[in-house]
Design brief:
By secondary structure, this protein is an alpha+beta fold. Helices cover 62% and strands 6% of the residues. The chain has three domains: 334 residues, no CATH class; 89 residues, no CATH class; 101 residues, no CATH class. Strand 1 and strand 2 form a beta hairpin.
């Protein structure tokens, strides 16, 4: 029992994390990034080639393979038709990240309770729990890097077990590199070093050779796969690296200040996160000023470094949320200790930050019926979500008025859990496309017509994934390969009809149907042409 009590906070973090990540894990449709990962994993197993990775039987070297290896193992265990099973690896990676953040917080000199709160802030940050339900590369690379930084901190701060800490730091550094290349090295590791140098300073006289061991081991592990591919398939590897390098400078470019609202990516903690970033306000209110400065510098350094890269997307801010959760924890801890004695202006600020969440929770049951397309088949989920949301909202507001910040904080966590457990199934009530046609149905057409199916060009990963097997391209990298068959099926993007007529001008072309994988109708702005294909039968 004593051991259980000693580990109660990690166990509670584990329970909360799994409750946020596991329910309805297979309910959200597969997006383009996840489809790429799943296809590559499936082809690893079907082609029995785990090193020269492919997608649609074409070389796919843009991303290192560690997350895909783990996904492939999940596919072997649970089957590639089990979306829940395929997403389990990213769930475990996210839980690992949360537990490492808890342990890292304790390294900073924070007590167990504040470290526990930091873990809760992290797992309930929007892009963290969303990324933890979406099996792509980001969560793996940052989870492993956080473990590397945990052991690096111990190496820098402690005099015992230096070799062990260096080896473990280097190992996880390498695993992070094998998950998404140098992304986390740039967005998490380098900002950590900057923040550590500014706050604590480096005392490397007896540790510099261990630091070299960390980098050498991490680099050796991280570069093992790309070096293998470089020599095993040099032409495709060079083509991939050239294309990826050009994208960083020319694709999806945004101005330097594009990330100025980075704190909003924490979702429900947006306002507390912003307040925690206000150094003049916070410096006299924290119990461990050095640790607060460190997490603040780490957060800001990460944002600044990411802002220097021309290519920008909101999801690239995911690593920023890790130190920002630790930083926000200082404001939360201050409220736990001093909420009853806050000055009027401070209390108004807290009322606004947390009362707004309570108001949203109370209003949600009354707003939902107006935004849902239908409640048919979703009535029970709506009732459960409405009751849970209303109860949480009332508790949040009442607890604020009674100066019980502990209840406020934990009720917000409960509110988010209720949204996932009871509200997530309501996604189906928002969606619906009367023209939806799954590519899986093409198997029946293929069997009936006794034809082979091709794609004209620019395959759609989601379509390949749902179809269940590769669909050969006729036009790839500017090269045209006409099928040998006299009669075959052909998927064509609705914008490529001119190219279709030019390529098969001497053929008979008959349109049969339209494959539409969009979860929303054409009238919606979120309807994507990329998820549509016209299906033709082409014959000589």
């Amino acid at each position: 029992m004593k051991k259980l009590l000693h580990h109660k906070y990690p166990l509670l973090l584990l329970a909360v994390s799994l409750t946020l990540l596991l329910p309805h894990l297979d309910i959200i449709y597969v997006n383009i990034m996840e489809a790429r990962n799943f296809i590559t994993a499936r082809e690893m197993v079907s082609n029995d080639n785990w090193l020269l990775t492919t997608i649609n039987n074409l070389p796919r070297y843009e991303k290192p393979p560690l997350p895909t290896w783990l996904t492939a193992l999940a596919g072997i265990l649970f089957g590639f038709d089990s979306l829940l099973g395929l997403r389990l690896p990213v769930v475990f990676a996210t839980v690992f990240l949360v537990l490492m953040s808890y342990k890292f917080s304790k390294n900073l000199g924070l007590n167990q309770k504040q470290s526990f709160h930091n873990g809760l802030l992290l797992i309930t940050s929007f892009y963290i729990f969303f990324g933890g339900r979406d099996n792509q590369w980001d969560m793996y690379t940052h989870s492993f890097m956080m473990a590397s930084l945990y052991f690096l901190w111990k190496l820098l701060q402690e005099d015992s077990a230096k070799a062990k800490n260096a080896i473990l730091s280097g190992l996880f550094f390498g695993l992070s590199f094998l998950s998404k290349g140098p992304i986390s090295l740039y967005a998490l590791f380098l900002p950590f070093l900057i923040a550590y140098g500014f706050t604590y300073g480096f005392k490397l006289r007896s540790r510099w050779h261990y630091g070299i061991l960390v980098l050498a081991l991490g680099t050796a592990i991280g570069l093992s796969w790309p070096l293998y591919v470089r020599f095993a398939d040099p032409e495709s590897f060079l083509e991939t690296t050239t294309r990826e390098a050009s994208r960083w400078a020319s694709y999806n470019t945004r101005p330097f200040f594009y990330y100025w609202s980075f704190f909003t990516q924490s979702g429900i903690w947006t306002i507390p996160s912003l307040i925690a970033l206000l150094y003049p306000y916070m410096k006299t209110r924290v119990t461990n000023l050095k640790a607060y400065r460190f997490t603040l510098f780490w957060t800001l350094a990460s944002v600044i470094l990411l802002s220097l890269i021309p290519e920008k997307k909101s999801r690239y801010l995911l690593p920023v949320l890790i130190p920002m959760a630790l930083n926000t924890g200082f404001y939360i801890e201050y409220l736990f200790e001093k909420f009853k004695t806050l000055a009027k202006n401070e209390k108004r600020m807290a009322y606004f930050a947390f009362g707004l969440i309570g108001i949203i929770a109370v209003a949600l049951p009354f707003v939902l019926p107006f935004v849902l397309k239908t409640l048919d088949g979703f009535g029970l989920w709506y009732v459960l979500a409405a009751i849970a949301s209303l109860v949480c909202g009332i508790i949040i507001i009442r607890s604020l008025l009674k100066n019980n910040f502990g209840k406020v904080f934990y009720s917000i966590i409960a509110f988010q859990i209720c949204i996932i457990v009871f509200g997530l199934p309501l996604i189906g009530a928002f969606l619906g496309n009367p023209d939806y046609y799954s590519p899986q149905k093409l198997h029946a057409v293929k069997a009936k017509e006794r034809i082979k199916i091709y794609d004209l060009q620019n395959y759609c990963p989601e379509m390949i994934w749902e179809y269940g097997e590769p669909i050969p391209l006729i036009i790839n990298n500017g090269k045209i390969k006409i099928p040998k068959e006299n009669r075959f099926g052909l998927l064509v993007n609705i914008d490529d009809t001119t190219r279709l007529r030019e390529t098969f001008k001497d053929y008979k072309i008959e349109k049969m149907l339209t494959v539409d994988m969009n979860p929303v109708p054409k009238s919606k702005k979120s309807h994507k042409k990329r998820l549509e294909r016209d299906f033709y039968i082409v014959s000589r």
